[in-house]
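We modelled the chain as a single entity of 61 amino acids. Its sequence is:
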Amino acid sequence: MRSSQETYMNVAERCSAYEHTNKSDSFRNQAPSTPSCLNCKHFAEDEHCTLDLYDAIVKKL
């Protein structure tokens, strides 16, 4: 299940492994400079964290 834009931003702000990538964000309606899982190097195309950090962080929100 896809999370909300706000959740992705909150997780990215709290993630110690967040690393911005230059992949296109135009179709996601989000500024590239805004920390979000959607523009993180470790976030796969099928919308999961390749480092398995997302679930642990979202549980603490």
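As a brief sanity check on the tokenised model: Residues 30 and 56 are 24 Å apart (CA to CA). The mean pLDDT is 86.
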